[in-house]
Design goal:
Elements lengths: L2 E3 L6 E3 L1 E2 L6 E4 L6 E3 L3 H47 L7 H26 L3
Antiparallel strand pairs: 1-2, 3-4, 4-5
Helix pairs in contact: 1-2
């Protein structure tokens, strides 16, 4: 279904068509706005916009997936660093030393994942 975002609230507005002359329009039930595309050139531009949007959908989805993967790696690095800080004690026990060492290994693995991610072509 073809849709546009509401320019006031961002909700998805699905394309509707008038009964009398099949011209496109959009309604936001939350904001109460109605947008009608009445002119021939405007309708042509709207159709071109939707054609271009459909062609760009696959690359955009791939970009979004890559971005979320990158965010997940960076978030985990931050979380592991926070855990490492918790092991900072003056006289750590054997378990605390081991835990810190394993967390540091995890950080290195995450940076390796980040490097691999940076090298891949998407």
């Amino acid at each position: 279904m073809q849709a546009l975002p509401c320019f006031l609230c961002g909700r998805k507005l699905e394309k509707r068509v008038t009964k009398t002359n099949a011209k496109p329009y959009f309604v936001c039930d939350v904001c109460g706005i109605q947008v009608f595309v009445r002119g021939k050139r405007g309708i042509e531009q709207l159709n071109e916009f939707f054609r271009n949007a459909e062609q760009a959908a696959i690359p955009f989805k791939q970009h979004a997936a890559n971005f979320y993967r990158l965010q997940a790696i960076l978030k985990e690095i931050d979380d592991v660093r926070s855990e490492i800080k918790k092991t900072d004690v003056l006289f750590p026990s054997g378990d605390q030393k081991r835990t810190r060492k394993l967390l540091e290994i995890r950080i290195e693995n995450l940076f390796s994942q980040l490097e691999d991610f940076a090298k891949t072509k998407s």
